Amino acid sequence: MRFTAVDLGASSGRVMRAEISSGRVDLVEVHRFANRPVSVAGTLHWDVLGLYAEVLDGLRRAGPVESVGIDSWAVDYGLLDGDGRLIGNPVHYRDARTARYTERLDADRYEVNGLQFLPFNTLYQLLEDRLDQAETLLMIPDLLAYWLTGLRGAELTNASTTGLFDVRERTWARPLITRLGLPARIFPEISEPGSVVGPVTAELGFDTVVTRVASHDTASAVAAVPASTPNFAYISCGTWSLVGVELDSPVLGDDSRAANFTNEAGIDGTIRYLRNVMGLWILQECLRAWGECDLEGLLQAAARAEPGQMTIDPDDPSFLPPGDMPARIAAYCSRTGQPAPADRAQAVRCILESLALAYQRAVSDAARLSGREIDVVHLVGGGARNALLCQLTADATGLPVVAGPVEAAALGNVLVQARARGLAGDLREFVRRSQPLRTYHPGGGLV
């Protein structure tokens, strides 16, 4: 069985070809490309047409497959007019247009959508958008699927990130949409992961179909967490870090709302109960500011640096926009009465220690609020390559951290496609058989 996963992150995209046989899934990267936002007339946009061209290139390189699945980051969308044409490039969630929203969710709204407050949630973006000509809202994976097939629709897991989704009923929250004054007509029918969109009509040189996977990349990543028991927490670590537990039902009480936890839909009726934590974005922006440098050498130097010299709150609003991140770290330290990092190694140590502490808080809160006992933390995504971050997380949480798979989102993507085509068995067992994993123990040090 051969499939292609299109996995779009906030800083890069990749097209992966997967082959499934003998109880294993093997991934091969056939195309990787940068995902660079573009600022035009003071507004930060995604270059979605450029992304679509890269996707087409990757699909052609992947060759004949049974199905294609697309996942991406959450909250952002494209708007189509009545003729199905895109109304402008989608706006980037880091654009400043929603900065004025600083409210915390009221109890009534949280009771419906179960979503943590983030100023760039789809709900707030739509309140800032011009919707008079819009006929259809499509989240980024649904937009690309539409261009590939000509068919419109919405996928469950990404719809659940909008703030306009009823987390109990697992469909659009129509009364909330009406109360906010948003046009109900723009929200298309929601489909479950594993449903087939339709045949690809774009010219690829072979026939295939698009299957709706868990199109929020975190939902795909969690589907590929190689857990063997339910008592696990996960950290999906990339540009963002999503930290939480997998539940059978949402947690919607006042304590959960006050802790700013979110309830997002997962596959098979599950709830991803989690908190968004700023992830490797802070390190990525430092590297961009420093220019060419040896990341592996920096990480080794950071591992040798004196611990606990300074910490930052990764979720401080000052770290959200792009820009001179080293200067912002120094300013934060000054503002909080701490010394600024003396060099790059100390800055990297500060970032990773601060992330590990943020993970510890989120894991502890998830366990307390959900009542779920946690025995192990699974760290998946690009952060699984970062041995120092993994060890610091084990030390901070006091729990073993199982690192891997790195390409968790792509794995979850193809496994949902495969199951839709008849694959039987536990998806996570396929991951455990197929992927290299490394366990970090508290106090174990780096070896």
TrEMBL record:
It is an enzyme of class 2 (transferase). One of its GO terms (molecular function) is rhamnulokinase activity. CDD domains: ASKHA_NBD_FGGY_RhaB-like. SUPFAM superfamilies: Actin-like ATPase domain. Its EC number is 2.7.1.5. Residues 233-420 form the Carbohydrate kinase FGGY C-terminal domain. Residues 65-220 form the Carbohydrate kinase FGGY N-terminal domain. It holds the Pfam family FGGY_N. Keywords: ATP-binding, Disulfide bond, Kinase, Nucleotide-binding, Rhamnose metabolism, Transferase. Signal peptide: none annotated. Belongs to the FGGY kinase family. PANTHER family: L-RHAMNULOKINASE, SUGAR KINASE. This is Rhamnulokinase.
